[in-house]
């Protein structure tokens, strides 16, 4: 008969306990490995092909060092939703003018996104030389044209899709599918922010609504949720931040102090709980935003000459009111950059069901009518933003990127007065820190149909943005679902020809 089990007469480690303890040990090793790969447990997780930054869940926006000396500290992306036509704004094509009304050679039976194409069609707006560079820019955007010497144009962009939502995804995340981190999420994951009282990443939707793929343009994807863009604009700032009138300032302060002590005690009871630390950090940021967001979004302190520069003081018609609302968003963008927000994403144009051609740049049917509305809304406020950034010295450290999801066709659609989708060739431009001024890179063919010289992919554009921020796009990674993921996937090269 065996003696009853007790801690005194049992073996030091029997078979059952050995197997159980081994399983738990292996699980702990695996967990430590998984936490270490995204940089949660190490100062810097590095390997042959990647460098992942330390992310302290309790302070996810803490500033982090780049891989090398950066040219830019902040990024401002101006995204024209709906696919703004390069042929009616920045890409001058004399041959398109000469062959107006003729079939496009070799493409007489071309079928594109919405069907068969008609004849080559010149822009309804005249192009004129601008600045000392003599850059030819359309009369649709004369205020931006006046700043041609500040801009670095990329005329040879190519995309992967001719559909809006995947196109927005591709430009914003480097992937046509949903569920991938946006550029801003990658940047704030890598670098954090110099200002801890505001979100590191802010998305400013158009006053008329969100882009077609909505929040996926500023989503964190598989990165920690901390790095999602915070969405608000000058018309609709973040709600529910104000202290209720029934609570005094002293009571509010005392309550927040008490909650902070409780959070600190709770965190001490569960050391290493990254999810708890992240939740506490998000609540603490929300508390700080009660003070900072109302201040930064309140444009009442802006002098009259600044409101006039942007066109934010205009009204009296629908187009003027829309322009003034977008202009206030532009001022908000400048104020956020001024405060040190790392990444600001400003949208011009919005998607509305049943409102095609009304609130975005999707000019299929009535290009002249629609763009005559959109051009003035974009032009003066965006130009005012660039001027204001420069006169405040902010362009020295800020990279401005103007983009859209793809271009438009040099032909009009059959039976229509507009241009169809065209990812084969389009234009983006940059200004500010680290890029050449008054410079044009690459080109489309004689009609603006396809990029043919120094072709630049969206992955190349993203690699260049990261490079200017001091980040190596091939080494900035995040381990997800068995793969070392990166913004540029397995593609992308820095466009060295545009670097100053």
Would you mind describing this structure in some detail?
The chain has two domains: 16-46; 58-237 and 300-498, Alkaline Phosphatase, subunit A. 32% of the residues lie in helices and 17% in strands. The protein has helices spanning 15-36, 94-98, 142-145, 164-173, 183-191, 249-269, 274-297, 304-310, 318-339, 367-391, 458-468, and strands at residues 44-46, 51-53, 74-80, 111-112, 115-120, 127-130, 135-138, 151-158, 201-204, 230-231, 343-348, 398-404, 407-408, 411-413, 421-422, 426-432, 439-441, 443-444, 451-453, 456-457, 478-480, 483-485. The strands form seven sheets. Strands 3, 8, 9, 10, 11, 12, 16, 17 and 20 form a nine-stranded mixed sheet that branches. A three-stranded antiparallel sheet has the order 4-5-14, with no helix packed on it. A hairpin with a 4-residue loop joins β1 (44-46) and β2 (51-53). The longest helix has 25 residues, at 367-391.
Q: How far apart are the first and last residues' alpha carbons, in Å? A: 87 Å
Query: Which structural class matches the secondary elements?
Result: alpha/beta
Number of strands: 22
Q: What ranges have pLDDT less than 50 throughout 5 or more consecutive residues? A: 1-11, 27-43, 353-357
**How many domains comprise the coordinates?**
2
CATH topology of the largest domain: Alkaline Phosphatase, subunit A
What is the average per-residue confidence, as pLDDT, rounded to a whole number?
86
Radius of gyration, whole Å = 26 Å
CATH class of the largest domain: Alpha Beta
How large is the count of helical segments? 11
Strand content: 15-25%
The level of helicity is 25-40%
The major pleated sheet works out as: 9 strands, mixed
Shape: globular
């Amino acid at each position: 008969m065996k003696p009853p089990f007790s801690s005194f007469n049992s073996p030091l480690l029997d078979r059952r306990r050995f197997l159980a303890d081994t399983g738990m040990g292996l699980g702990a090793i695996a967990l430590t490995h998984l936490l270490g790969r995204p940089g949660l447990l190490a100062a810097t997780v590095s390997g042959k092909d990647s460098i992942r930054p330390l992310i302290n869940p309790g302070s996810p926006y803490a500033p982090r060092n780049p891989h090398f000396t950066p040219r830019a500290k902040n990024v401002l992306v101006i995204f024209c939703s709906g696919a703004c036509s390069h042929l009616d704004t920045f890409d001058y094509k004399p041959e398109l003018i000469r062959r107006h009304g003729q079939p496009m050679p070799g493409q007489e039976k071309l079928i594109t996104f919405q069907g068969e194409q008609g004849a080559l069609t010149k822009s309804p707006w005249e192009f004129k030389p601008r600045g000392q560079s003599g850059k030819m820019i359309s009369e649709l955007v004369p205020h931006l044209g006046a700043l041609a010497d500040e801009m670095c144009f990329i005329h040879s962009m190519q995309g992967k899709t001719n559909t809006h939502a995947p196109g927005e995804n591709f430009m914003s995340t480097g992937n046509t599918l949903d569920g991938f981190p946006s550029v801003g999420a990658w940047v704030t994951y890598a670098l954090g922010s110099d200002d801890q009282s505001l979100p590191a990443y802010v998305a400013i939707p158009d006053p008329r609504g969100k882009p077609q793929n909505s929040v996926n343009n500023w989503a964190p994807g598989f990165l920690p949720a901390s790095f999602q863009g915070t969405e608000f604009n000058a018309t609709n700032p973040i709600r529910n931040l104000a202290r209720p009138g029934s609570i005094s300032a002293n009571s509010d302060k005392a309550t927040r102090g008490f909650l902070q002590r409780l959070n600190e005690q709770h965190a001490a009871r569960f050391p290493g709980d990254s999810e708890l630390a992240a939740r506490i950090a998000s609540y603490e940021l929300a508390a700080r935003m009660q003070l900072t967001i109302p201040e930064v979004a309140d444009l009442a302190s802006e002098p009259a000459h600044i409101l006039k520069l942007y066109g934010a003081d205009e009204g009296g018609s629908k187009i003027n009111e829309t322009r003034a609302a977008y202009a206030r968003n532009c001022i908000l963008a400048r104020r956020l950059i001024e405060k040190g927000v790392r990444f600001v994403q400003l949208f011009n144009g919005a998607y509305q069901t049943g409102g095609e051609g009304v609130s975005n740049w999707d000019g299929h049917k009535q290009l002249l009518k629609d763009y005559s509305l959109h051009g003035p809304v974009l032009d003066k406020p965006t130009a005012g933003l660039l001027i204001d950034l420069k006169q405040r010295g902010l362009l020295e450290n800020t990279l401005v990127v103007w983009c859209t999801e793809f271009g438009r066709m040099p032909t009009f659609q059959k039976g229509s007065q507009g241009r169809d989708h065209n990812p084969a060739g389009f234009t983006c431009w940059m200004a500010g820190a680290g890029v050449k001024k008054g410079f044009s890179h690459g080109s489309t063919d004689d009609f603006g149909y396809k990029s043919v010289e120094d072709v630049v992919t969206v992955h190349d554009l993203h690699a260049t943005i990261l490079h200017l921020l001091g980040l190596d796009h091939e080494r900035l990674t995040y381990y997800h679902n068995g793969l070392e993921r990166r913004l540029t996937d397995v593609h992308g090269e820095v466009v060295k020809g545009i670097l100053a």
